Amino acid sequence: MQTEASRRAWLATTLPPWGWSLLCLALTSSGPWMCHAGDDGFRVESEVFVNNADQPVARSLTLFRDGVAWDFLEPALADGDDKRTAKGADDAAAGEIVLHDPARERIVLVDPARNVKTQIDAIRLERLSVSLASWARKSDDRLVRWAGGPDFGEGMTESNERIELVGPRVRYTIDFTAPPTAETADVYRRFADTAILLKALVRPGGLPPFPRLAINRRVAAAGGIPTNVSLEIDSRAAMITGRAETLRCVHKFHPRLLAADLSRIEEAESRVAVAAPVELAEFAAMPLLAGE
After folding, report:
1. Could you tell me the pTM of the whole model?
2. Mind listing the pLDDT tens digit for each residue in 38-47?
3. Are strands 42-50 and 58-65 parallel, antiparallel or unpaired?
4. What is the pLDDT of residue 286?
5. Is residue 63 one of the residues assigned to a domain?
6. Which of 5, 38, 135, 249 is most buried (CB neighbours < 10 A)?
7. Number of domains in the chain
């Protein structure tokens, strides 16, 4: 039987840094999303926790500006490892970068440490969604078949600030709050929906994303943006798979970008420009650096 420490270590070493960010978004979450080109942007700080741990296994910062979103990701941490980036908020080299660029219908994953990048077109994610839904609905596994959708109404309950969805051996819970504008809620949902499909493409093997997409639509319809998100997995299934019984993500929303954020975006743009392009399979197969 796995100990809590071994589960945390397994999770921390299995997902690359950008995988943790996408997992976090997957817990919170189609079509293109856009901010108004002249807006001031906004920022979302996120932390991922495993089971009842007090310390996060990963952190990320997402910056929305001029119609694109930038994810800046800290490496996933093993149990007992309290390393944190100490280079300052303007250092884009602290971890991987994910650029969501809906105007160009692309997502770019960047590894600054190795100076490589890979690009994924929006049409690839759309095709994945169709094929994944078809596969899930034909599955022999009751949980996978349920997660293929399309209807999750019977298991969903909601109040003014919380939505829950219960399925076979799983429970999703999302607490949300109202952002400054309804447009902000819709922008964030569409971004998160894209990110959850990206996770399914880059790191396949988890639950199909459709329950989470359904929840995100309800949160956005209520004019909300997530603040606390959890996925609880039946303890028997967790033991078999070696996965955590509970994954929790905490989001902190800020309605304006900081001066350091603008510098970080500028640095990230430079890194995207100079990174060497590689295929997705090569990018995803690259081993983590020692100590990550």
Report:
1. 0.78
2. 467 999 999 9
3. antiparallel
4. 65
5. yes
6. 249
7. 1
Domain annotation covers residue 164? yes
Range(s) of the domain holding residue 254: 4-285
Give yes or no for a contact between 93 and 113, defined as CB atoms under 8 angstroms apart: yes
Q: Is residue 290 part of a domain?
A: no
Q: Report pLDDT for 221.
A: 87
Amino acid at 211: P
Measured distance CA(31)–CA(258) in Å, rounded: 28
Q: Report whether 269 contacts 37 (CB < 8 A).
A: no
pLDDT at residue 39, rounded to an integer: 60
What confidence tier does 124 reach under pLDDT thresholds 50, 70, 90? very high
The CA-atom distances, in angstroms, between 233 and each of 48, 68, 80, 109, 244 are: 16, 33, 24, 29, 8
269 part of a folded domain: yes
